[in-house]
Amino acid sequence: MFDEAERGVRPRSVHEIGQDLSALSVSDLDERIEALRREIARLEDDRRRKQASQEAARAAFKF
């Protein structure tokens, strides 16, 4: 009926930098590590696209 976000419950997979990890199982930690790796890859891809765009703009305006 309602998902966790609609009920104000944070999803299990949300990770906050510096949070207490003592209550997490090895499986939970593995899931978070994988999610963070995917997020890092997404950030790196976006950074590469933006950097390429900046370099193209610099080249276009170089006299």
UniProtKB/TrEMBL annotation:
Name assigned to this protein: DUF1192 domain-containing protein
Does Coiled coil appear among the keywords? yes
Keywords, ordered alphabetically: Coiled coil
Spell out the InterPro entries in the cross-references.
DUF1192 (IPR009579)
Q: Which residues form a coiled coil?
A: 26-60
Organism encoding this protein:
Methylobacterium ajmalii
Say yes or no: keyword Coiled coil present.
yes
Pfam families in the record: DUF1192
